[in-house]
Q: What sequence folds into this?
């Protein structure tokens, strides 16, 4: 029975998001469904399934979509990409278009580390080159939970150590007495870091989103 | 061989760092229990590519040890390890010339990432 239930949810997730759960990852799906049942105050995964066969909507749907994405992220993840953005986009754009603003979309922005890394990259680029490049960063994600964290900009000591060199950490973040680090609005203002907007993404099932940046 | 000096008075931290870095066969680790012991090694002319230095130690703490290293013209990059530090403490040590910080808790990937930040060396390891 449980394997039928897991198959049902795996198919739902694949239909909605285009993310495929292979059978050898079903144990992970089961753990996550148990977590959802606990969060929603439902007695078991079987009961969750009964509810799903009637309707999947609201918080239930949001939690299901949340669990399907891994939300794995870190600051300056894949630093070659950031080096390339600096060389091939920021430098070239400044040389060709001067200070004409540019928009960067951090799609599947998760808890905000990528968008913040982009903002730091631009701020450091402006400082280093004496440019006044105006950059608008938009972070979107299908998960409200991760976006809430992104908007707060509060990270644990472990999270800030993933990918973020300490000189940037003390320059752009403030530590509190619980050992969490917040992307400080004052420091962001002082360092003229670009503004970031985080919005929920309207995800099109299994298709690549092709409309332009808002 | 990539030579790393680990200066920490806590045997458990020493063992933890050693067990993680020991996964890489190109890395050799030398341990010192405190700043004074580390300075003896340095004064004897031992060469290192990188130093992990604990902030909290009974005999010569991290900042004192770092100052002694500077006074001895020891120019090897230093990664400071710490549990409790304010942003201001960290900024002060960066100004003094410390290269990076490893804040407890940390994981194996964070250690190797810091090594890469500081030395540019990328090591392959199995978790």
A:
């Amino acid at each position: 029975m449980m394997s039928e239930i897991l198959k049902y949810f795996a198919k739902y997730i694949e239909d909605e998001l285009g993310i495929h759960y292979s059978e050898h990852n079903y144990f992970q799906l089961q753990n996550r469904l148990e977590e959802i049942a606990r969060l929603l105050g439902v007695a078991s995964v079987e009961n969750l399934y009964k509810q799903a066969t009637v309707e999947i909507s609201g918080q239930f749907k949001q939690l299901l979509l949340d669990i399907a994405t891994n939300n794995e992220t870190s600051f300056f993840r894949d630093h070659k990409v950031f080096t390339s953005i600096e060389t091939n986009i920021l430098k070239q754009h400044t040389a060709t278009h001067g200070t004409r603003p540019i928009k960067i979309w951090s799609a599947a922005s998760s808890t905000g580390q990528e968008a913040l890394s982009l903002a730091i990259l631009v701020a450091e680029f402006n400082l280093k080159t004496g440019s006044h490049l105006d950059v608008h960063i938009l972070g979107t994600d299908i998960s409200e939970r991760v976006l809430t964290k992104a908007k707060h900009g509060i990270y644990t000591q472990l999270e800030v150590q993933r990918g973020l060199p300490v000189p940037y950490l003390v320059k752009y973040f403030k530590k509190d007495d619980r050992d969490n680090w917040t992307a400080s609005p004052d420091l962001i203002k002082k360092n003229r870091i670009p503004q970031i907007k985080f919005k929920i993404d309207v995800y099109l099932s299994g298709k690549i989103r092709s409309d332009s940046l808002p | 061989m990539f030579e790393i000096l680990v200066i920490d008075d806590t045997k458990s931290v020493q063992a933890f760092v050693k067990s993680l870095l020991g996964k890489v066969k190109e890395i050799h680790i030398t341990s010192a229990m405190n700043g004074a012991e580390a300075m003896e090694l340095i004064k004897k002319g031992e060469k290192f590519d990188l130093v992990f230095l604990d902030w909290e130690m009974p005999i010569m703490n991290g900042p004192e040890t770092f100052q002694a290293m500077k006074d001895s013209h020891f120019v090897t990059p230093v990664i400071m390890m710490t549990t409790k530090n304010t942003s201001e403490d960290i900024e002060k040590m960066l100004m003094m010339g410390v290269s990076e910080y490893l804040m407890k808790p940390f994981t194996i990937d964070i250690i190797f990432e810091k090594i890469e930040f500081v030395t540019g060396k990328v090591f392959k390891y199995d978790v």
About this structure: The first strand of chain A starts at residue 102 and ends at 107.
